[in-house]
Design brief:
Order of helices and strands: EHEEHEHEHHHEHEHEEHEHEEHEH
CATH class of the largest domain: Alpha Beta
Mean pLDDT: 92
Low-confidence stretches: none
Helix content: 25-40%
Strand order of the largest sheet: 5-6-7-3-8-9
Number of strands: 13
Bound molecules: adenosine-5'-diphosphate, magnesium ion
Number of domains: 2
Radius of gyration: 25 Å
CATH topology of the largest domain: Rossmann fold
Length: 338
């Protein structure tokens, strides 16, 4: 038995569709119309204790709905969900003790009160012994560097500061698993980095199981070796991040730095003669994108060097961000299907 077991899990939302037009509201009152949205469809997922899994997909794919079912906030339409020993929607309270949840778009902190009050409130809610509480809080305030913020009202904190508070709030009761739903949304690079490092640390060092939803693939590369991709409510990939890269990273980019803009323009023009290349010149820099399955990179290098005289040259793989975007747009290739 795995720590998290999700079997044929589905959630369908039924929402009322408003009639349009002048008397729409009246019409809706007498003959309401309904629309069904299958947010999650027959999802199967198992996660072992101590794993860290990225849960990715385009907007509206069903990520948050899945997380809400794991948290016990939503009742599934059909299928089974088990976290540890509990069925979240049936044993909400027991489940609450073993899970933590951070929703980037929603706060669990008390906005008008000092940050420390929210933590004290959680201590009371979860009946955390004073000693344990103090130890945990000291430890987390130290690593996340928020000691100075404890006395500040939450509403005066920046988004990055608040998010650090949210994460501590989700961890004080020592959960087995934490669901992070877009924890880095809207944060600058520094703030993201700090949060990434922290999530990685609690996973690696304290063995907290992590399920992370994000649009930032930098988060995934840093934290999660395993990737689950959901699209339109259905899981389309479950496996290694490395495999995705191997199968999809066929686009490469050569960057050349020329002596001046005129040479850059000439180099770009020369490269443009070769079919299938995406050439871009910006000041002294020329970038040449190509598909390594279609273009021999050694051959291409030789031809570029014979026609121009770069002072610097580098070749790089497509970043994971671009790869995942392509998967969302084009679907998954047969050979990497689960
Ligand atoms: N409470 C709700 N009522 C009706 N439809 C919902 C509700 N929550 C989510 N949905 C719909 O379910 C689908 C999946 O949403 P969600 O799980 O939030 O996606 P994601 O988190 O992947 O962006 C979307 O089409 C969304 O509009
Ligand atoms: Mg969401």
């Amino acid at each position: 038995m795995s720590f998290i077991e999700v079997t044929d899990l589905s959630k369908t939302f039924v929402t009322e569709v408003r009639h349009k037009g002048r008397f729409g509201a009246v019409k809706s009152l007498f003959s309401p119309q309904y629309k069904e949205v299958e947010a999650v469809k027959n999802v199967n997922l198992t996660i072992e204790s101590g794993e860290s899994v990225a849960y990715l997909g385009p907007n509206g794919a069903g990520k948050s709905t899945t997380i809400k079912m794991l948290s016990g906030i939503l009742v599934p339409t059909s299928g089974e969900v088990q976290v540890g020993e509990f069925v979240p929607y049936k044993q909400r309270k027991k489940n609450a003790y073993q899970i933590g949840a951070v929703f980037g778009q929603r706060s669990q902190l008390l906005f008008d009160l000092p940050l420390i009050d929210s933590f004290e409130y959680l201590r009371y809610m979860y009946t955390i012994p004073h000693g344990t509480f103090k130890k945990k809080l000291d430890h987390f305030t130290e690593i996340l560097d928020i000691h100075e913020l404890l006395k500040r009202p939450v509403r005066t904190l920046s988004l990055g500061q608040r998010m650090r508070g949210e994460i501590i709030a989700a961890l004080l009761h020592d959960p087995e698993v934490v669901f992070f739903d877009e924890p880095t949304i809207g944060l600058d690079v520094m703030a993201k980095d700090r949060i990434r490092e922290f999530i990685r640390q609690i996973n690696r060092e304290e063995n907290v199981t992590v399920l992370l939803t994000t649009h930032d693939l930098g988060d995934v590369e840093r934290i999660c070796p395993r990737l689950v991709i959901i699209d339109k409510g259905t899981i389309v990939y479950d496996g290694d991040l490395a495999l995705i890269r191997e199968k999809y990273a066929t686009q490469k980019t050569i960057s050349m730095m020329l002596r001046d803009e005129r040479e850059a323009e000439e180099a770009a023009r020369a490269a443009q003669k070769t079919q299938g290349l995406i050439v871009d010149a910006d000041g002294r820099k020329v970038t040449v994108g190509f598909d390594q399955l279609k273009t021999d990179s050694a051959e291409l290098m030789r031809s570029l060097l014979s026609e121009s005289n770069p002072v610097d040259l580098s070749i790089s793989d497509e970043d994971i961000e671009a790869i995942i975007k392509r998967i969302y747009e084009e679907g998954i290739k047969e050979e990497v299907l689960v």
